[in-house]
User: Which sequence fits this backbone?
């Protein structure tokens, strides 16, 4: 029986200016700082029980240290390690606690160069008592957090010059399922929307036409409840002086979005609302073709197609 | 390896007046009539691809024929059948197509008397062309459907005089996970919120203190996007003259709700917004105790606790 | 030419525990403390430029010192004073600055005993620089205020044992217009919804059947944008431990509401969303009769009629 | 005493293809067709009691026949007529009923060439019984109308090559008040946001730099309740194949917007949410200068400034 992934867990980001990045993700976006150790700040969203869904580490330049995925079982770690080593992939074992709050983990580069971490155990620290919610099924009291704070991590978008190879590998080796894909007029694949958890889209893999070098993270998305929350987030970003892109709605995934960027690194966060869930084991991937909507539709419908204009991305 | 359930699929309701019940679920609530055959009307929500998530069948009196659950695999059907027969449960095999749009299925009574159906295959019929969405990842164009139409089935609430036995059986035999539970002051369990899909709460099992006879369906819940949608639904129910209960928000599940009832049967539908999802394989069930919120909080916070005043339920 | 009122300006409340009341209105509800002088705290909502829309003054017991109305012109003050004195009403002139931030004013008791203040000039102090919005057309940056903070004062509801006399006087002497009214089965009037500004309902005058003594303030309402904001406010009140009533929607005015109460005084604030505006000079008052909705409609529609269950009110 | 305007009443649009325009405004946008007479279709929004807030008349080409404003009194009509004639403006009297549902009216060209109509009386026809709301304070049952139907007319935006002269005339002759204005770096005025009703912005007057010919209508705005409603409207326009611009939020007026255009004429409708009201007789106009936000802010904040990219406008 194959090991299985449970879900997208966290992104570990690098920044040349950790204070400026923390000011963005914590003070402006409203992620909660859980702890700071060894030059790394660990953050989680206000509805998350797990120790962190993002970390910020000081480095020479901006970058992505790794993307963390939780396995369904603890034994899945060594099962995955063994499978990956069979493919010739080097595995680095990380001791429990080396990444704060986290159990034993493995790190490795995917065949196309994405830095991944697998882990199973994660501590669930209580918030400080004066900020804890009376409701037992959430973490922080919403009256004590940033008014625009998103609730939980949702997905990552990765741009990869060898996207097709990466997508096949995610399916074959890691068991990702495809929810939607988008083909160009010439038949080549532009993007694939996939899931480790099966239920929501957790990874959008985009063919990075302009980039020969290596894969990169385009954005990490967090969830908010309503479209008004997107406007409130945009408003807050404007008040605080951060760059935004959107508001709009993609045809693919039907996600309503606002993008905002850390001034220190260009790391991009998406505030995401709407979208849909897949509970159907017989889900047939949605097939989009370039021109399906654009040709017959007016330009105003572009946001339905969800081409993202802003191409900055941050490399591993 | 054990067979697994994928999700709550549908509820099959009985009504002494199918036209009046259809007027409620289809014309007022906004479920879509997919087909009518052999005296049964098959309905689905506007975001659903599968053939039906509800059926209405004429009968001598109101009732619940069965609650349908989809298995993860086709082979899961016979695996489950074999397991259940080992427990002494009688299995009835249903031919593909006997329930419109559905593949081969099994039906049986759970040890406490709930009527369940398991199936794997379900047709995904296109809507009529003039009502089909241009977006490939949804079914109906929202401009062509009822303004308050919910998007998809979410959960059922079952009242059972032998709730604890039922909950244990759901866990042990069917692999349900517990997300939350609520204990009375005397330590007895009042309710358990569980999931077949793991991600959302799909079944709330309530200890039916006042009812010795048999288990019953309290409500089936469908999803809407915002709290304003709950007000719009309440408004619509008032315009159409149907009984409602709510609007409010439960502490358990954090679901925002409106209940409305079919005048012919007292079958209750919940319009549900908010709530949370569980992607964590290490989720620790949320434990509530009677008095935790009520004692220290003002009466106005009752909606946070989510006691449902209206006790009508419909028996199998 | 008659003097004219411009709008409801503020309510001046009394409390035996100014710190506890301030904790409610400022820290929990999110009104902004503008200044504190001579034992009075002056508050405004986050979208208001004027100096205050509420004041809290320490007193032996809870009470309403006065309800403030702004005149359209400065000369309107002496014109109103002269008219009122012609009716035998005693006028007290208040010097500019006696009520902080306010110009010259008059105070008087209406014929049925409501304490009113008329003023024209009000300072528009800037918020502290670090909390000021970059947008010139609002006061505070929403990222710096309470997440649930309402935007502006909307209306007051007054219970008066001689409501009909009060309503007639508001129309004849002050030029209020009637937007809606509600008659009991016996033909007597239960409530009248009126406006000084013409545009929104600013005063609901309810016949106080149970109270022979004197008129009282049932609640003061402030505006929020969406129904989700009402849920967020309820959530915040629950977290902070304050009593609430609602959420619901009245048929009269179509206002969506949540009521919350200051623990020190029972002063009640309404969070209000929705409702409608009247720009039509030929508006015909909406006439409701007891039984119009209740008799033919199910109990669940009660919130449409807007009977307020909670009868606490605070006397002048 | 000067006559006074009450509010923006309606826009009378011309179209070379009345069926195509009606398909847009009535079937897609969801305005209600009240009556059709003499080649004109009269429409109102679902929350409006008055006979119409828009009319469509077949003509050789697209155009604006007139913009209608309601006077506060019937005598205001002849008082305005007399004032305007004193300025040398030609007045055309329109008999009651000539414009369906409307009382006696006057029409004239403003000094810069805008075609205006003043009227006081307007019929308030009941909707067809099967579509009438049970709530007496609204017109149509929301369950019977288009899911995205806006509630009421809000404002017009007029582009005028001689904007400053027009603005001064609106203030001096018609008593409009200025809520906000925007000056270019060279000190010239780009736009002025004004009101006849005082409460909301009813006319935005933009300096039409590129157009020497004559003034034109850029858009007419109707109100919706939430930001989700803007997304729903955009979604509907995409499904129906109409051109849109937005979604966004202007810094001026703080209005959240979506623009959509009639395919037959380029007449543009704005779906508007948010914004603010002015009840203050001492309101100080908000003064914006080019560069105040743009220079110091990132490009993403453009929507806060509200430059409208799409310059199509329709001439009188």
Assistant:
């Amino acid at each position: 029986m194959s090991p299985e992934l449970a879900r997208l867990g966290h992104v570990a980001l690098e920044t040349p200016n950790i204070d400026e990045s923390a000011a963005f993700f914590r003070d402006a976006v409203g992620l909660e700082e859980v702890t700071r150790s060894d030059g790394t700040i660990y953050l989680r969203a206000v509805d998350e029980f797990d120790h962190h869904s993002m970390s910020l580490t000081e480095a020479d330049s901006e970058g992505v240290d790794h993307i963390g995925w939780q396995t369904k079982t603890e034994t899945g770690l060594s099962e995955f390690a063994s499978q990956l080593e069979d493919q010739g992939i080097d595995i680095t074992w990380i001791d429990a606690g080396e990444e704060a709050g986290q159990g034993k983990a493995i790190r490795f580069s995917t065949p196309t160069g994405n830095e991944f971490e697998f882990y199973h155990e994660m501590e669930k620290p209580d918030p400080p008592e004066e900020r804890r919610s009376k409701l037992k099924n959430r973490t922080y009291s919403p009256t004590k957090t940033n008014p625009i704070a998103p609730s939980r991590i949702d997905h990552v978008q990765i741009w990869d010059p060898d996207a097709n190879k990466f997508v096949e590998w995610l399916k074959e080796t890691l068991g990702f399922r495809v929810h939607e894909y988008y083909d160009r007029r010439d038949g080549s694949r532009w993007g694939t929307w996939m899931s480790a958890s099966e239920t929501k889209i957790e990874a959008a893999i985009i063919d990075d036409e302009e980039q020969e070098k290596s894969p990169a993270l385009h954005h990490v998305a967090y969830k908010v409840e309503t479209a008004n929350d997107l406007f409130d987030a945009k408003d807050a970003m404007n008040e605080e002086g951060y760059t935004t892109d959107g508001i709009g709605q993609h045809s693919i995934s039907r996600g309503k979005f606002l993008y905002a960027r850390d001034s220190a690194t260009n790391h991009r966060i998406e505030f995401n609302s709407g979208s849909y869930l897949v509970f159907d084991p017989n889900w047939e991937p949605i097939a989009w073709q370039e021109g399906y909507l654009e040709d017959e539709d007016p330009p105003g419908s572009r946001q339905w197609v969800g081409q993202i204009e802003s191409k900055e991305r941050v490399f591993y």
In short: Helices of chain D lie at 18-28, 75-86, 163-174, 227-240, 302-305. Chain D touches chain A at residues 226-228, 230-231, 234-235, 237-238, 241-245, 247-249, 256, 260, 274, 296-301, 303-304 (CB under 8 Å). The CA atoms of residues 67 and 116 of chain D lie 5 Å apart.
